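Cross-posting from the chemistry board since nobody answered there.

I work mostly on the small-molecule side, so proteins are not my area. We synthesized zinc ion and want a rough idea of how it might sit in this target. Sequence and SMILES are below. Is it possible to get a predicted 3D structure of the two together?
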Amino acid sequence: MLAHLRRLTGALLILAALPASFHAQRAHIGEAIRDFVSVDAPVVALTNARVIDGTGEPAREGYTLVLRDGLIAAMGPTASTPPPAGARVIDLTGKSVLPGLVMLHEHLYYPTGPGVYGQLGQSFVRLYLAGGVTTMRTGGNMNGFMDISLEQRVASGEIAGPAIDATAPYVNGPNPFLQMTTLDTAAAAKRHVDYWADAGATSFKAYMQISRAALGATVQAAHARGMTVTGHLCSVTYAEAAGLGIDNLEHGFIAATDFVTDKAPDQCPGQGRGQQSVADLDPQGAPFKALVTTLVQKGVALTSTLTVFETLTPGRPMPPGLAVLTPSLKTQFEQNYARTAGNTQSVYRTLFPKAMALERAFVRAGGVLVAGTDPTAGGGVIPGFANQRQLELLVEAGFTPLEALAIGTRNGARFLGRDSRIGTIAPGKQADLMVVAGDPSRVITDVRKVDTVFRQGVGFDPRKLIAPVAGRVGVW
Ligand SMILES: [Zn+2]
C-alpha cells in the first residue's frame, strides 16, 4: 500500500512537470516518421467497432469512437453517435478496438553473441509499436543512455515508438556480465540511483547478484524520488525483497529462490537450483501459499514473461516474428531451438506449465499480475510479435481472453500510475488504441491481426513500420 502511495505521488509529480496542454494534444509527427502514419486528422470517427475496453468487461458491438486532440472525445453506439462534421470516418465493421498494450518487461537490446547484448533500440521501438504496444517499461538497461534518449525522441515525435518508462542500467552486485556495473554497498547503490534519476531514468531494476543492503538502499533512494523498483532476483528471496519494499518482481515465480532449502543469505544459489525448486513446488502447499500471502499483503506486483521461457521449453512452437532478424541471428536462434528440442532433461518441461499454474494461483489469491516479454535469453523473443504471443500464453495459462487483455493493458497502466490516462478505453482517456481484425475477446490469436495502432490520436500502419527493418534487426 505504501508502495502504491509512493507510485501515486511519483505520477502526480511527473504530471505536474508536463506542459498544461499535454492532455489535449495529438502526438507530434516529425518528418522522419511521417511515412509510417496512416491516420492523421484533427477529428477521427471509428464507426461500427467492437470495443474491448481493457477492464475485463465483455466486448460491446457496434460502437463509434470519436478521437480529437489525442483523446477519446466521445464514445457510444454507432446509431446514436454521429461522426462530427469534417471528421475522417473509418468504418471498422468486423474489427475490434482495444487499448494499446502496456507492457512492463521490455528491452531495447537483444543477445547477439556470447555475453554480448546488441543495442537494437532503433528497430525495437518500431516493432513494439507495430505490435500494438503504446506504452512500455524497459525491464533493465545494458547500455546507459539509449533507453532515456529513445524515451525523449519518441515523446517529441522524432522517432516512432511507444511511450517509454526508461530503466536505468541494472542495479547489481558483483556479477559476470560484461555490460553491467558492480554496486557492492548501499552507498554505491544510492549513488547509482541518484545519478541515473538525474540523467532521466524513470525506474530501476535490481538483478541476480544484488545484496539485501544494496537492494534496500535502491528501494529507499528510488521511492524518495517517486520511482519504482523491480527485480529479477536470485541472491535475495522474494519474501526478503517484499520486506525491503520492492514494488515488482519479474518472471512470475520462476526467479524465486525462497524454496531453495540451504540458501545462504545474499548468495545466488544458481538460477538452475532456484528453478528446480520452483518446478518441484506444490501450488496447494503451505510454503507457496505463505509467499503469495506476503506478496499480496505488501502489494508487490509480479510480471509474467512466459514468452522468454517458452523459447527455452522443448516441444513448443517456433516463436512469431523471426523473419525480421538478420539472417545470421535467425540461424542462431534456429540452432538454439533445435538444441532445446533435443534436451530431454530440460527443467522447463515441468517448470513452464508450473509457472503458468503458479501465476494463475497468485491472481486467484488477489495478486497483481502484469505482463512483459523479455527479449533476451537465447533469442527468439521478437518485440511486438512477442507481446501478442504473451497474451496468447496467458490464455493458455488459464486466464480468459478478457482477463489476459486486461493484464496486458489496464494492469500495466495501473502499475505505472497512469491508469487515469491509458490502459482502458473510455471518454476522456488518451487515444492509445490498437485496431485488430476479428474478435480477440473470443479468439485471442486475433491480436496478431493488427490493422492500425493509434498513439495519442495518430494512427500508425504496422506494415509500414516493419517493412524497412525486416531482415535487418540485429544491426540496429
Ligand atoms: Zn529482462
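Reply from a structural biologist on the board:
Welcome over. Reading the output above for you: The pocket of zinc ion is lined by residues 105, 107, 139-140, 374, 376 (CB under 6 Å). Confidence is low (pLDDT under 50) at residues 1-22. Happy to explain the C-alpha cell format if needed.
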